[in-house]
Amino acid sequence: MVLKFLRRFTTGTVALYCVGHTISKHVGELLICSGPSMHPTCQDGELILAERLSVKFDNIQVGDIVGCINPQKPKELLCKRIVGKEGDPITSHLLPSGRVPIGHVFLQGDNTPVSTDSRHFGPVPEGLVQIRLSLRIWPLERAGWVNDRWFWDKSNKNKE
């Protein structure tokens, strides 16, 4: 009886872990915001649902807030807004051509005076972009959409 319970418990625990791991690696995850670089859009302690499907389906656009691997500290995730994609004109001393290179994005924090972003480390390879922030869950008084389109929506309201 005890062995049967342990087997069921272990099987259930492993299955639950596998489902959770698969969802977090391929669909989305919850993030807790920290740092001032995205104020006032994202503030310390906010809980935000981030999805991976926009990245997987190559549907990240200018204006989206994304999480990317920090090119200077690879174990750290940065949350910044995409202000330019490949070919877009950007004025920066790190872009001699004045355009975002192919396969890259130019990221910037909403709180520009304190944000360390592409203005400091240059354009980021699209491969470092991991997630797109979608829905603020906590605190409840600020709950709502962070990005205003679904992952399958290819329209870009910012470019129209």
UniProtKB/TrEMBL annotation:
Q: Which Pfam families match?
A: Peptidase_S26 (PF10502)
Q: Where is the Peptidase S26 domain?
A: 15-91, 98-138
Active-site feature positions: 37, 80
Main location group: mitochondrion
Gene Ontology MF terms: serine-type endopeptidase activity
Which region is the signal sequence? none
The biological processes this protein is annotated with in GO are: protein processing involved in protein targeting to mitochondrion; signal peptide processing
Q: What keywords are annotated for this sequence in UniProt?
A: Hydrolase, Membrane, Mitochondrion, Mitochondrion inner membrane
Q: Which Gene3D superfamilies match?
A: Umud Fragment, subunit A
Tell where it localizes: Mitochondrion inner membrane
Report the superkingdom from the record: Eukaryota
Spell out the GO cellular component terms annotated for this protein, sorted alphabetically and separated by semicolons: mitochondrial inner membrane peptidase complex
Subunit (UniProt)? Heterodimer of 2 subunits, IMMPL1 and IMMPL2.
Which family, according to UniProt? Belongs to the peptidase S26 family. IMP1 subfamily.
Give the protein's recorded name: Peptidase S26 domain-containing protein
Tell me what organism the protein belongs to: Caenorhabditis nigoni
